[in-house]
Amino acid sequence: METPTPSRLKSARKAAGLTQQQLGMALGMEPNTASARMNQYEKGKHAPDFLTMKRIAKELDVPVAYFYCEEDILAELILELGKLDTLQLERKLQEFKQGK
Fold this sequence. Notes:
- By secondary structure, the chain is mainly alpha-helical.
- Helix content is about 65%, strand content about 0%.
- Helix 2 packs across helix 3 (about 30-45).
- It holds the Pfam family HTH_3.
- This is Helix-turn-helix transcriptional regulator.
């Protein structure tokens, strides 16, 4: 099975309204190589290490787990849960545990 990271990275970047170059530059990459590096990540030719992925997730305002989750529906849930604050997350967790 292929890693879901490349396609999720592309989707999250587009949802944030950024070009590959803009995202790469926001991460501190050189302007002349930023687009090419991000393209390699999105094509799956190279994979960013976990710390880089955390920086990408922060820049795109999505949980880092979204990029690694195998199941699409669970990835969507991660995205939605990532929009909640800690108190809201605790409530959701209790609801899940209670079967609501």
